[in-house]
Amino acid sequence: MTLAAQLHDLAVDIAREAGELARRRRTEGVAIAATKSALADIVTDADREVEEMIRLRLGEERPGDGFLGEESGAAPVSHGGDSDVTWVIDPIDGTVNYAYGIPSYAVSVAAVAGGSDPEHWEALAGAVFNPASGELFHATRDGGAWLHDVRLTVTAEPAAAGALLATGFGYDPATHASDLARVGRAMTIARDIRRIGAASLDLAFVAAGRLDGYFERGLQPWDFAAGALLVTEAGGRFSRVEMPDAAARPLAVAAGPGVFERLLSLTTE
Ligand code: LIP
To answer: Which family does the record assign (predicted)?
Structure first.
């Protein structure tokens, strides 16, 4: 079995196990543990518990790998080592949905190669699991993207009515005006816009052909590491573009071949 296949199977197992814990904690009631970058940027006790569970499982299975988690940052999985693999984890992507009881959240697990610098990372395997819907999206580099055992393909061309697009907004209110202006430009090729609230699910839905495209500024590696692999393995394109303004909020764009260039042009004007 190839390394990518081994990492894929572990990512799927961990995503399922972590998702079940998140789902159980949701039924028990969610406590906000703290706010982070802005008042609206919350972390729950479950976020932290799920990430720690993932870290412990990876410590058992692959102690020499690297680890980057949304809640605990970058560190070796366990005692460090010479592994070239890093696990990139969003324990509960869509935390605000999770806190409000909106069933659109996911555990995002990606295994990347390329050392410690995210700029050099190449995703080898990824899993995005929504415990509320039971949907598990997964991919292996050069092995395709899947929803359970169904192979995924992005849409080749949008319908005549226009593209069904998705986007998201940062937690900082100061970014909303420019983000909304970007939505206005994207609407010139859209039939409608969706704001699902979890980047990993937005990307999984592009891979599944449920969305024709997705764009959002300010995503972190844990938001997109697994979802971007789903998109590219489903025949789509994913780019992350530095924007000309001062804010360090690169724009992520994902779409099938019939939409990508137009969406990229409109959203980076
Ligand atoms: C969320 C992203 C979403 C974005 C939110 C937030 P989190 O990640 O998945 O696309 O719009 O602002 O960043 O914080 O729930 O892990």
So the answer is: Belongs to the inositol monophosphatase superfamily.
